[in-house]
Specification:
The protein has about 325 residues and is mainly alpha-helical. Helices cover about 75% and strands about 0% of the residues. The protein folds into two domains: about 90 residues, no CATH class; about 200 residues, MetI-like fold. The protein is built from 15 helices and no strands. Helix 13 crosses helix 14. Belongs to the binding-protein-dependent transport system permease family. InterPro entries: MetI-like (IPR000515), MetI-like_sf (IPR035906).
């Protein structure tokens, strides 16, 4: 198990290194093609003082001559950036008033809360619906589950969010506050926007909506993997012994179907990163997706690169956890 973990860890670190270099190279190309972002710091169309431009370039690590040569990968600044990251220095925002690390410290908890609720909703619904459809395969309930989840998944997340914010949230909030009060849990649960005063309560509904992303895919994956095991010899043997259907489903079918399900959960979690940008934008959640989107608009390279780096680290960690769960669920995998 230790050698398997070490091998997967090294592969994950190599993958992360490649991703970070690609992000750095894209940023370098952006600077080389679009011009120096340091000029945006000064604002306006006036001709800036060269000494001031040089000082700002040094502040943001843009004083290397490679940024003036289109196509140059700027390898030196890349290793400098990695060294700064290892020392906890993530640079400063474009306006120079705040460390990037301070911005991320306030944004990451909100995104983690959002992903916590969305993951719980996604996994719970997919397991329940997929298992129910598999147990009634070919019947009306099976078809109802498949068509309903496909219908939900076919509607863009931002449409669901907009419908909730502008049609559902306001009357529900007014109704709930009239019964339980404006400071109660129910009085803030249906708020159309995020509230820093109630970060956990006002993020539940956005998390549930984000949890619908990929629901059809994961539900069908659960159903297909369980149907494969329903036809296995050990399931027919358990059924012949007279075991209850629930015990057969939970102990024998579900347990032996977890590897593809874990794979689907890991993939869907990474896919939800794109949905988080829309969810955080519409619901006003100051999370990673919203901050990265705003940083792209401002051409804040330090914040964009660091935010995407954090997202890449999360995806790599999730992939590593999925690999480890493979070995836990099926010990034969570590010997392959």
């Amino acid at each position: 198990m230790g050698r398997y973990f070490l091998r997967r860890l090294l592969q994950s670190l190599m993958t992360l290194g490649i991703v970070l270099f690609v992000l750095h190279y894209l940023m370098a190309l952006s600077v080389q093609i679009r011009g120096n972002p340091a000029l945006l710091f000064l604002g306006g169309d006036r001709t800036p003082d060269p000494a001031m431009v040089e000082q700002i370039e040094k502040m943001y690590g843009l004083d290397n001559a490679c940024y003036e040569r289109p196509g140059d990968p700027c390898v030196g600044p890349f290793f400098t950036r990695l060294g700064n990251y290892l020392q906890g220095d993530f640079g400063r925002t474009l306006n120079g008033n705040q460390d990037v690390s301070e911005v991320l410290v306030t944004a990451i908890p909100n995104t983690l809360r959002l992903f916590l609720f969305s993951t719980i909703v996604l996994v719970t619904l997919a397991l329940l619906l997929g298992t129910w459809a598999a147990r009634h395969r070919g019947g009306l309930r099976d078809h109802a589950v498949r068509y309903t989840t496909i219908l939900i998944d076919s509607v863009p997340v931002f449409l669901i969010l907009l419908f909730y914010v502008y049609v559902v949230a306001v009357p529900l909030t007014k109704w709930a506050r009239g019964i339980w009060g404006s400071d109660s849990f129910m009085g803030n649960l249906f708020r159309p926007t995020f509230s820093p005063e109630y970060p956990w309560v006002t993020i539940i509904i956005p998390g549930i909506i984000l949890g619908f992303v990929g629901l059809a895919t994961l539900t069908r994956l659960v159903r297909a993997s369980q149907l494969e095991n329903y036809n296995a010899d050990f399931v027919r043997t358990a059924d012949a012994k007279g075991l209850k259907k629930t015990r057969i489903t939970v102990v024998h079918v579900l347990r032996n179907s977890m590897i593809p399900i874990v794979t689907g959960v890991g993939y869907t979690f990474a896919f939800m990163l794109s949905g988080a940008v829309l969810t955080e934008g519409v619901m006003g959640i100051p999370g990673m997706g919203r901050i990265i989107f705003q940083a792209v608009q401002r051409q804040d390279t330090s914040l964009v690169i660091t935010g995407l780096t954090v997202s890449a680290v999360v995806v790599v960690i999730v992939s590593l956890i999925v690999d480890m769960l493979y070995a836990v669920l099926d010990p034969r995998i570590r010997y392959e």
